[in-house]
Queue: 3 jobs
Job 1
Amino acid sequence: MNFIYKYTSIIFCFSLIVFSTSCKQSEELNEQKVGVEIESKIDSIISVLTLEEKVAMCHAQSKFSTKGVERLGIPEIWMADGPHGVRAEISWDAWDYAGWTNDSITAFPALTCLASSFNPKLAGEFGFSLGEEARYRKKDVLLGPGVNIYRTPMNGRNFEYMGEDPYLASTMVVPYIKGVQKNGVAACVKHYALNNQEHWRDKVNVEVSDRALHEIYLPAFKAAVTEANVWALMGAYNKFRGQYTTHHELLTNKILKGDWKYDGVVISDWSSAHTTMEAAMNGLDLEMGTGTDGLGTTTSNHYDHYYLANPFLKKLKSGEIPVSVVDDKVRRILRLMHRTNMSSNRPIGRANNVEHHEVARKVATEGIVLLKNENNFFPIKDDKNLTIAVIGENATRSMTLGGGSSELKAKFEISPLQGLKDRYKNATIVHAMGYGSGASVYDQVLPSPYNADSLRVEAIKVAKTADIVLFVGGLTKSHLQDSEGNLDREQFDLPFGQIELLNDIKALNKKVGFILVTGNAVDMSWLNQVEGVIQTWYLGSMAGHAIADIVSGDVNPSGKLPFSFPKKLEDNAAVSFGKTSYPGVDLNQEYKEDILVGYRWYDTKNIEPQYAFGYGMSYTNFELSNISANQKKSTITVTCDVKNTGDFEGAEVVQVYVGKSDSKVKRAIKELKGFSKVNLKNGETKSVTISIPVEKLAFYDESISDWNVEKGNYEIHVGNASNNISDKIEISIK
Ligand code: BGC
C-alpha cells in the first residue's frame, strides 16, 4: 500500500512539474483561460484523489486557509482580506491577530475613493500594486473587490464599494481585477449578491424584481466574471427570495455558473453557508469561516464539522449526493490553483515600496472631491503671514484601523495634520482636537475618554486667533459609523457634537473650510457655515499628503461623486418607502424603489439632491461644446470638445447618460453609459470620443427573461455631472 502511495506520488509530482511548465508557456497570467490540456491534467488528478481528499479541499482548515493534498504535492490555498490592502495575519484558529512583525503593508484608499477617480487606468494600477502586495505576503486569493451597490447612505460598509451606479462600478472593477490577477493572485469579487446593508446582514431576506436585479445589482459581478475573468467570487450573508445567497439556485447555478459560464471558485463569506445539501447542490465550492456552535472548544478539529466536510462526505458515500458534485468543486479549485499557487511563472511581489505609495497617493488625490469653493477658499497659499487652525479629531485619527474585515496594519499612515504640516513650511499650523469620538473596538462603542467641554474650549481658542480654519471631521470607522458589523449607521447627521462646535467656531472666525472624512453621504445642513468643502473618503497610507496636495493646489481636484448626497435621509429612494424597504420588517425587506436607485431616483422624481452623482468641482473651469452623437451599425459614437477655460491645468470627466422618454417600460430619465477623463492645460481644448455599444441600451425584459433593446428614439445627455448636462441629442435606433 505504502509503495503504491509513493509511486502515485512520484507520478503526480512529475505531472505537476509538466503542469507548471505548460503554465510558463501560457500568455500573460490574467489572460489565462484553462485550456483543454490543463483540463485533462486536472481530470487525471481528480481520478486519483480519494473522496476524503476531495472533500478536505472544499472547506477551511484554518481561519484563512484550506488543505492541499500533501502526498500529491497539491498546495494549500492562502487567502487574505481585502479590497484596499492586504490585512494583517490572523491567527490559525481565532479572530485575533497573529502578532507578526512582518505583515504591515501599504494601505490604499478605500474603493469609494477609487470609484470617484472615474479613472479605469488608475484602477488597473491600484489592482496591480495591491496584487503585488498580496503576492509578497504569499496570498493566493485576495478577498476583494466589493461591488455591492450603494443603496442607502446608512450602510456601514459603503466605503468598501464602488458607488451607486452599475456602469461605473463595472468599468472600474474590471481593470482592478485584471491588475490583481496579473500577479498570479486571484481576486475574489464580493459579496454576491444583494448585500446592501449591514443591519441583519446574516439573515435579512431581500425581495427585488428581476429587472432591478439584472440592471442594478448584478452588472458589476457580471463584468467581473465575463470581462475580467475573475478567478474567485464570494457569496453574501443575506437571503434572496427566501434562500441564502451563498448557495442559491438562481443566483449561483443558473445565472453565475450557467448564463455567465463562470469557471472559477465560489467561496462562502465567513459563516454564510447554512446547509450541506444546498451548499453542495447550489454551487458553493469552498466553505470558509463557519461557526460550529462552539464545537471549536470541544472537538479537536471543528473544521471537520463544516457543512462541506464530514456531513458532505457522508452524503457522498451514501449516494445521496453524486460524486460528480464534489468533482466539479475540486475541478474549480484545481483551476484556481493552476492560475495561482501551481503556476510557475508568477512574479514574487513586493510591498511597501515607493511605487505603491505613489499609486496610493495618486488614487487618493484623484478621488478627492471638491464639493464647495466659495470665494476661492481653496487652494490655500503657503504664506508666512498665515495661521491655519486644523480642528477636529479626524485630523489625527487613524482611518486604516477599524471598519471590520478591511482593517489594515499600515506600515505608516500620514494623517491630515501631518500632511498639512509637511506641505506648509511658511504658514503656521496650529491644531486642536475639538471633539472626541472614543476608541474603535469591534462591535462596541466606547465612550470618549476626553472631557468634551475642555476640547471645545481649546478648539475655539485656537480657531479664534487663526486666519483660516480647516475643520477635519466626518465619520470614523467604529461600530455604528462607517463599519462592517451587524448594524448600520444610526444617524445621518455628523456625530460627536461636531456641528455645535462648527457653529461656535463660525461665530468667531468666518473663514472655515470643511475636510469631510467619510465613506458615506452625511447630512450637510451645516453647509452655509463653511466656505469650502473637500470630500476625502478614507485615503490610506498617503492620506495626509493627498489632502495637502489638494488643499495647496499642487494637484487640481478632479474626483466626481460615485453616489448622490441627499438633502435629507428621507429623500433617499430606499428610505422613502419606509421600513419595509429599509432596513426591513421582521427580517424581510422589499427593494420598493426597484430600478430607481441613486440619481435614477432623484432625476425621475425631480428631487434635488444636496450633491448629485458625478458632481465634483475643479480649481479651473471647463466648457463642453460641439457635442454630437451618431449611430453606425451597433455602436453609438458621442464626440465633444472640452476646453479648459480657467487658469490651472486640470482634468474633467465627460459623462454620457442615455434615456428613453417614450419607452414601453418604466425607465430612469437617464443612465450613465459612458465616461472619459481628460487632462487639459489651461487654455487647451481636446476632442473626446465615447463609444457605446447599442446593446448597452437594453433593458431587462421580464416577459422574456432576457435583455431587450427597444427601437425608437433615445436621448443622449452629455455633461460633467448627472445634474449638469451641457447638451441633449436625440438619436433613433432602428
Ligand atoms: C466579510 C468578508 C470578509 C470575511 C473574512 C466577513 O465577515 O463579510 O468581506 O472577506 O469576513 O474576513
Job 2
Amino acid sequence: MGTRLLSTGRRRQGPPDRASADPAFPRRDGVLRCGDVSLEALAHEYSTPLYVYNGDRILERFHAVRGAFAPIDLLIAYSVKANPNLAVLRLLGEAGAGADIVSGGELYRTLRAGIDPERVVFAGVGKTRDEMRYALEQGIMAFHVESAQELAALGEVARGVGVIAPVAVRVNPDVHSPTHEFTRTGHASAKFGVSPDEAVLLYAAIVEHPGLSPVGVDVHIGSQIREPGPFLAALDVVLGVADRVRRACGADLRYADLGGGFGIADGEAGALDIHALAEGVADRLEGRSLSLVLEPGRFLVGDAGALLARVLYVKRSGGKTFVITDAGMTELIRPSHYGGVHAISLVCDGDKGAVERVDIVGPVCEQGDFLARDRRLPVPPPGALLCVRQAGAYGFTMASNYNSRPRPAEVLVHGGHATLARRREEYGDLVRGEHDD
Ligand code: LLP
C-alpha cells in the first residue's frame, strides 16, 4: 500500500491519505489494481480513457446497506441513472436489488438485465403517456407521482390499458439538503414532489379513482448528502403524510420510500454514516406496518468505479502547470458541472515526479474542461496513467460525444476476471442515425 492521494487543495476532512485505504482500487507492488488486476494491464488491453468497475466492491456495498438496515423489511431499488450498464444492473439484480427508474429507457435496461418489474419504482416529474403505458404493461411495483396533472394522466392511461396503476406520491418535505444546488431536491422551491398538504389531496383522488391504487409514500431529497439529519427530517414528514392519509381516506400505505442520496467519501469529505441513518429510520418505523424502500445509486457504485486517463502532455504557461490527459468533461462531467472533487492518483509509483500544483485538464475545446484544479500532484511524464476515483456513479452515464469524441469502453472486474461491459465507440458510431443525402 502507499498510494498517494493527490491533494485536492480544497477543504478536506478525514485522513489525508484516504485513497490508500481504497478497497476497490488498492495499491500493491507500486501499481494500483482493481481487485487483483493491474490497472496498467487493463489500460494496455482496452486502451484509454477507460471506465473500470469493481464488481466485488459493488456487491460489498449492496450487502452493507442490507446489513445496516437488517431488521427492517427493505427493498433496495438501485437507482439506475447512477450507472445503467447492463452488467452492473445484472450484478445487482442477481444480488436481490430492485430498481429506481426515471425513463422508459431505464425500464428497458432494467428488464434486459433480468430485474423483476415488480421490484421497479418509477420516479420523475415528466413521465410521458407512452412511458406510463410501457411501465403499466410490464407490471411495475409503483409510479412515484409528482403532480396532480401527472396523476390524472396516469389514471387515464391505466384505464386505457385496463389495469390499476399502483401509486405512491412523492412528497416535497421542504428539507434543506447540504449538497450542491443542482443535486438538492427536497426544498419547497425544487421542481420535485408536492407539498404534504397537496399529497393528502392527491391520495384522496387516488382512492376515488377506479384506475389508481395507493401503495406507498415517497421522498428523495438530493444526492451526495453526508449527514443523516436531513433524511430523518424528510422521513418524519412522509410518515406524517401516511398518518393523515389513513385518517382522511382510510388507506393503509404499504411502504415508505426514503429515496437515495447517501453520500460517499470523495476527494472533498467523508461518507454518510449509514448505520446512524439506519438507527434513526428503525426508530421511526417501529410499531408501523410500513416496509422501507431505499434508492441508493452512488452509494452502491460510486467508489467501485474509476476512470483511467493517460497523460498526453504537460504544459506550463501563464504561471500554471497543466497536466493534459486523454479524458475530460466528455468522459466525466462532475468536476466541471457540480464542482465534484474526485481523488486522483498515479497508477504506477514509478511515474511520480516533483510535486507541483497543477490543473488536470482534458482535450475538449472548453475552458471549463477539467478533471481537477489546483491539485498538488507529483507531476507525471507523458504516457503516465492516472486513476480518477469515485467515478462509478454519474460517470459514463453522463458522458457525451461532444467534440465528436467516441465514448470510452467500460470494464467490469468481478471474481478476479475482467470482462468488457461495453466496447469503446468507433467513429462510425458517431454518425449512426444521421443522414447526409
Ligand atoms: N432516487 C431518485 C428519485 C433520484 O432522483 C436519485 C438521483 C436517486 C434516487 C439516487 O441518488 P444517489 O443515491 O445516486 O445520490 N449527476 C449528479 C447526481 C444526480 C442525482 C439525480 N438523482 C452527480 O453527479 O452528482
Job 3
Amino acid sequence: MARKKIALIGGGQIGGVLAQLCALRELGDVVLFDIVQNMPMGKTLDIAEASRVDGFDVELKGANEYADIKGSDVVIVTAGLPRKPGMSRDDLLATNAKIMTQVAEGIKQYAPNAFVIVISNPLDAMVTLCQRITGFPSKRVMGMAGVLDSARFSSFIAWELGVSVKDVNAMVLGGHGDTMVPIKRFANVNGIPVYELLKKKYKGDMTKVEEVMTAMVERTKGAGGEVVKLLGNGSAFYSPASSAIAMVEAILRDQKRLLPVCALLNGEYGVKGFYVGVPVVLGAEGIEQIIEMDLDAEETKLLKISCDAVEELVGAMDKVLAPA
Ligand code: TXD
C-alpha cells in the first residue's frame, strides 16, 4: 500500500516541527510548502538526513509550487504571520485572510480529497474561510486550537496538583482567543474532579480553591501570549505542532478520539455557519460526530460570549475580503 502523503503549507516554525514529527512517527511522506524560495527544501533535507539516525522511512520534499502537494491525503496549514509581543490573534486578520485565500485555492486545485487542518491565526476565522473557498465537506476541514488549549490547561492542573499530566482530562471550548472557555466543572484526574482534589489540598478552603482554579483558567487563556512574550519573536510552535499531529493520527489511524476541535456548526450550541471549538469524534471520516454537552448556565453564557466574538471576527474578515 502506498504511503500516505501529508502536505504542510507554511514552512516556518510550526511547519518545520510538523515535518519532523510526521517523519519520526512515520505518518507518511511529507511535502513542506512555502513561498520563501529554497527554505522548505533546506528544512526537509536537514530532517531527511536524520533518517538514518532516527530510523524512519519516509520521503521529505520541500516545495515552492502548489503542484507538488498533488494528491495529498492530509494538508496542514500554518501559512501566515505569527503574533508579535503585544498583538492579539485578531490583529493578524487582514494579512492572514489574504494568505489563506491563496492557500485554500491551491488546496482545492491540487488536493481535492484531502483532510485539511488549519492552524493559522486568527484560527476560527481562517478555518471558516478555508472551508468556504475549498467548498470541501465540513467534516474534512477543521481547525486546531482546542487540543492545544486543553493540553495547556491540563499541564497547569498537573503542576498544581503534583500528578502526572497523563492522568489529567480537561477541555477548552469556544474560539481560540481571549474568550476561550476552559470547562472547570468537568476537569478531572482519572475521573476524580479537580475541584475535589483542590478541596483536599486546601483543606476545604473553598475561597482558595476558587482562587487557584481561576488562576489556572486565566493562565490557560493567556498561555499563548505568555510564550509570545518570553520568546520575544514569534509564537509557540512545539506544542501547536504536537497538537495538530494528534489530530492527524486520529484521522489516519481511525482512532475515534474525542477531542476539542474547531468545527463548522450547523445549529449545535446555537451557532450556524462558522467554526468554533467543540468536542468532536475524530476518525477516518474526519469529524464523525459533534458532541453537544449539557452545559450549565455559566458555561453556556461564557460559550455564547466566545461564539459571538468569533462571529464578529468572521464579519470583520468578510469586510476585509469584500471587493472595494
Ligand atoms: O493553536 C493554534 N492554532 C496556534 C496558531 C498556535 C500557535 C501559533 N498559531 C499560528 O500559526 C500563528 O499565529 C501563525 O498564524 C501560524 C504559523 O505560526 P509559525 O510560528 O509557524 O509562523 P512562521 O514561523 O512565521 O511561519 C509561517 C510561514 C512562513 O514561513 C512564511 O513564509 C509562510 O508561512 N507564508 C506562506 N506560506 C505559503 N503561502 C503564503 N502565501 C505564505 N505567506 C507566508
